Amino acid sequence: MRSHMLCRFVFVLTLAAAQADDRYHPERVATASVSPTSRPLPDRAELSAQHWVQEAQAGIRARQRGARTSTADRVARNVVMFLGDGMSVTTLAAARTLLGQRQGRPGEESQLAFETFPTVGLTKTYCVNSQIASHLDSIAAWALAAGRDAGIVTTTRVTHASPAGVYARAANRNWESDANVRQDNQDPAQCRDIAYQLIHSFPGNHLKVVLGGGRREFIPTTSIDEEGTWGRRTDGRNLLEEWQQDKIRRNVTYRYVWNRDQLMSANDDLPDYLLGLFEGNHMQYNLEADNRTEPSLAELTEVAIRSLSRNEKGFFLFVEGGRIDHAHHDNLVELALDETLEMSAAVARAAELLSEDDSLIVVTADHAHVMTLNGYSPRGTDILGPSNDRDEAGVPYMTLSYSNGPGFRPHINGTRADVTTEPNYRRVEWMSHVDVPLESETHGGEDVAVFARGPQHAMFAGLYEQSQLPHLMAYAACIGPGLHACSAAATHVLTPALLAAIVWLTMLKG
Ligand SMILES: *[C@@H]1O[C@H](CO)[C@@H](O)[C@H](O)[C@H]1NC(C)=O
Ligand SMILES: *[C@@H]1O[C@H](CO)[C@@H](O)[C@H](O)[C@H]1NC(C)=O
Ligand SMILES: *[C@@H]1O[C@H](CO)[C@@H](O)[C@H](O)[C@H]1NC(C)=O
Ligand SMILES: [Zn+2]
Question: 326 C-alpha vs ligand 4 centroid, how far in Å?
Answer without folding.
Answer: 6
